[in-house]
Design brief:
By secondary structure, the chain is mainly α. Helices cover about 60% and strands about 0% of the residues.
């Protein structure tokens, strides 16, 4: 589930491509219940069944039906439903865009342990969606989510340290967070590590290491990494020049970008 944001990378062919903060919102399944004040009447249907139906309708893009079902599941305490509602109100899916309502649901989900909702609150502060843009708070929410194991938040923290957003540039800290995210199979973090090794950002220039990380990310479908891999083959950096291999990866990057 994407929130309107920045493209993964600038469309250019003259330099290695790197990724900025991931400005989409998503939901992940977690086991937990939203605290409900007082006693409530028992739900008409099994909350898990309602949630499954809501997700099915969401994936079918029947947003109005999904919205009602998510509300029913959230009222029964399902954390995933609250996280989805936060996304839907922020995206205007089945309803008008309402960042304030979105934040209410994201905070409920985050309080119940949903790490993606916690990360998404960081996105709100990073972009100033319904709140005053505040990079310090964005970092704080990303860190809370990252410390709980969310690899998107780990990657976002790495970007903020790399680019000096909300604080001083710290390439060592950036690399540490990228490495943690990459270990959790975050392809954007893998690509970012490749860029840092290729450019010597906080590390010694190491083309073979850059190649290794670009290939890992490319194997996971990352279009920017495919482009970067093609550039290494084209320029013969860390590997013999190979125009055929370069063209293959340029074509793969183009196809992958169109499919996103």
């Amino acid at each position: 589930m994407n929130i309107a944001g920045w493209p993964e990378y600038a469309r250019c062919c003259s330099k290695v491509l790197r990724t900025g903060v991931v400005c989409w919102m998503a939901c992940v399944s977690v086991h937990g219940q939203i605290s409900q004040p007082g006693s409530a009447a028992p739900p008409v249907a099994n909350p898990s069944t309602v949630l499954d139906r809501a997700i099915e309708m969401y994936e079918a893009r029947k947003y109005s039906v999904a919205l009602g079902a998510f509300h029913e599941a959230a009222a029964a305490g399902r954390v995933e439903a609250a996280s989805y509602l936060g996304v839907m109100y922020s995206e205007g899916q089945g309803t008008s865009v309402n960042y304030e309502e979105a934040m209410v649901w994201l905070r409920k989900a985050a309080a119940a342990g949903n790490t993606q909702a916690t990360c998404n609150i960081g996105v709100f502060y990073y972009r100033g969606l319904g709140v005053t843009r505040n990079y310090e708070l964005a970092r704080r929410w990303f860190r809370e989510s990252a410390n709980a194991g969310n690899n998107q938040a780990m990657f976002n923290l790495g970007v903020m340290y790399r680019d000096g957003v909300g604080g001083a540039v710290d390439t060592g800290e950036a690399m540490a967070w990228f490495f943690r995210a990459a270990a959790a199979l975050n392809d954007k973090a893998m690509n970012s590590m490749g860029v840092m090794y290729k450019n010597g950002d906080g590390v010694i220039v190491d083309y073979p290491e850059a190649l290794r990380w670009f290939r890992k990310a490319a194997d996971l479908g990352n279009a920017a990494a495919m482009f970067n891999l093609a550039k290494l083959y084209e320029q013969g950096l860390g590997i013999p020049k190979d125009a055929t291999e370069a063209r293959k990866w340029f074509d793969k990057a183009s196809l992958a970008e169109r499919s996103e």
